[in-house]
Design goal:
This protein is an alpha/beta fold and 466 residues long. The chain folds into two domains: 138 residues, Annexin V, domain 1 (Orthogonal Bundle); 290 residues, TIM Barrel, CATH 3.20.20.70. It has 22 helices and 14 strands. Belongs to the EutB family.
Amino acid sequence: MSARHIDLAGTRHRFDGLAHVLAAATPLRSGDTLAGVAADSAEQRVAARWLLADLPLTTFLTEPIIPYETDEVTRLIVDTHDTAAFAPLASMTVGALREWLLADTTDGAAIAACARGITPEMAAAVSKLMRNQDLVAVARKIQVVTAFRDTIGLTGRLSVRLQPNHPTDDPTGIAASILDGLLMGAGDAVIGINPAGDSVARVATLLAMIDEIRDGLAIPTQSCVLTHVTNTIELVRRGAPVDLCFQSIAGTEATNRSFGIDLALLHEAQDATLGLARGTVGHDVMYFETGQGSCLSADAHHGVDQQTLECRAYAVARAYRPLLVNSVVGFIGPEYLYDGKQILRAALEDHFCGKLMGLPMGLDICHTNHAEADQDDMDTALTMLGVAGVSFIMGVPGADDIMLGYQSTSFHDALYARQVLGLRPAPEFEAWLAKVGLTDPAGRLSDTGGTALASQSIPALTALLG
């Protein structure tokens, strides 16, 4: 990788290669400081952005930031690059790409047509030149639609993952949280449990329970227990009711191997899950979670900044046509995103870059209890992401996940976002809410409808749970 330099206000700023330019151009965050790749000063950050703005996009096709020979994620990025989709952008610099994305004459369809020609490094680079409002304005243009039992990502819609985690995987506690979320209009993205234990037998029990609830109430949604992909393959082999295949992924081969996965294993899992043919309105079966800082945590960041590596994880996700991609933005902790401002910036970057690359992006708008952040910061992020057109968010009882021990968004927060921004659930789920009397003709929650559903479902759940 060739060294670069730029003269700014009488000072020559030198950069050792493309990865150094990308890292130095990144808005300040604690993870890059911890990794030793952050800009030395605000002046160096401006110099890096100036240099980055004038770089031709084709630079990213000839200078891989992690060697092709040693990293299968790089090979995936290079080998699957769509030259036809890239053609309208091929003469642009990074700065020109920013101007094109923001132009009133560039609509979402034009951006979507170029998505597979945009590499992760291009997406990361252009995001580093953007203010927060730029990230919102462009992401809002882009619609990425996926489907399984309902349709997610349509413009004007906001879906919710109903997350009924329990510290001991107690079925009664999980069922109560599921009912609570349904009564609040949550669950159209997925009813998804992070299990406290990861045995195949326990996961099978939880999958069967959710499936009985979903089928018994005729809910047009999908279920998932967020277990390791190898467990999902075994569950499919045993005939468990697997709707979605989940896996955490990252942007380098070494980090993915630390997760116990590689690209071939993901293909095997996708094929196994597709073979069940459980979707009704679509067949997008993969659910991926990501988050800035995972490569540094695994000591596999190769001297690359955490946001660029996050974008490389999106290249992995894109290869498997996922139903859902979720950046768990503040989960790792303040070592990587120190405070509310850094979490907000990362959330907007992740959402923008994922959608720019053609992914159905959701956000777990969250923070750990030792971060310099609070629920007011999460309210700000939630509102901005709602304006930006985020596909889905989390619905956690009381916004406090008592199993994972972090703060997220609640069922009430999702109701707030839908109300103030005029957003609605996925259409099939919206129709179900109206059919069972949970919503009135205007789409608002109905107190009498909630009572009716509870009276129907509580005896059924009691019988189900013995």
